[in-house]
From TrEMBL:
GO terms for biological process: protein targeting to membrane. Residues 337-346 have a biased composition (Basic and acidic residues). This is Palmitoyltransferase. It comes from the Eukaryota. Keywords: Acyltransferase, Lipoprotein, Membrane, Palmitate, Transferase, Transmembrane, Transmembrane helix. GO terms for molecular function: protein-cysteine S-palmitoyltransferase activity. It comes from Cucurbitaria berberidis CBS 394.84. The DHHC domain is required for palmitoyltransferase activity. One of its GO terms (cellular component) is membrane.
Amino acid sequence: MTLARNIIVFTVTVSLVTFVAFFGRLPAFRNTPIGFLHRLLIVYIPSALRNLDLKLTNGRITNGGFRLGHYLMHDKHPLVVIFFLGLVTACASLFLPALWHLLRPHHKLLVFLLLPQPYIFLYLSAKKNTQTYINTLNHAEQMRYYPYDRVLYYPGHTCSTCKFLKPARSKHCSICKTCVSRMDHHCIWVNNCLGRGNYKWFLALLLSTAILIAYGAYLAYLTLTPLAERQYNKYERWYIYVPKPGSNSSSWFTYFDKKGHYFLAFTSIYLDVGGIQASGVGLLALLTWPLPLGLLAYHVYLIWAGMTTNESGKWADWSDDMADGVVFLGQRKEDTMRENRSDTHMHAIPLRSGRSSSSSPIPPEDEEPLTTWPLESRHVLVRTRTGQAPKTLPSHIKHVAKEGSFEQVWSLAAVENVYDLGFWDNLQEVLFN
Ligand SMILES: [Zn+2]
Ligand SMILES: [Zn+2]
């Protein structure tokens, strides 16, 4: 049972560290134990090691480590892709030959259908995508997809690297060295940015990987259980739980000790009958399938909320500032809104048509072209340093906000997200653009 225990401890630790490393930075986990563990892993432990190394070797060891860490996290490289594909390939080539003779024909067919999918969707996510990368050829088209909401995105900002106006919802990626349309995040798993064109393939990758891994665990359970039961009946007495002398049978310790004992006992029976090839890989699958599924659930939540990972961070910043009492919401001037809200699709009217009565300077027309998006923002948000209503407005807000309309807001519920069309429309937008 020692082997089973070691394998379980190792797999649970790796799964936990992977979970914290992948999920811990998400705004949803700010101010939670997972967020703390993430900071521990990414900030506190490296800086403690750095201080120790500075004392011992004048920083020689950690300099190399930081260079490697920087390369892994902030450079374009296929190492994580190779690791992932290598892991899937190695697991499949150990697992399938060991169990193939025990599989029924419909399971063999399903394996043929499910196994290639993560490879295909990873390729589609990682491939250079003309809808995701913004360049001078598609820039005009990219500007027409989304309006500036004047909460997360403002018109008139130029990318200092690409030298064109940043379309709403886009972000420059310093790793891919390009502006990315509807930027979600740069993903080291696919060695690419996820944006307007390839986000759907990333979702398909998460779904297909979760299904493949869960199916692998199920196949191991299905085929090895009859063998494990036979083994158990033969050596039953070895696996019976014997409480520690003097322990109280109703205590929580005894309860968990007993559960842990039987889990280890069954794992070791499965390892006996299936070996590392079938049972070890099956156990790894059992413990890791929630990882891609959890990440997929998070992205379904983002789609439901009408935001990207990049935007969820911006919303979380607004939420923190609202809690501090320094955020004010102002109404838009009607004459800066579209003229006819019921007939805006494909015929959107520019926000400034020369009818503005504002005396403040108006940026040139080409900063905010017509968009095909059905909604537009009816208000603006402003942070103030003092917690008092803004007296003078920043120039990018001044020409669109009604003066004197600013009211303090304490929660995001008061703010409209124009990029949220409702779950089904958001999903269609993600899948079919
Ligand atoms: Zn750029
Ligand atoms: Zn990128």
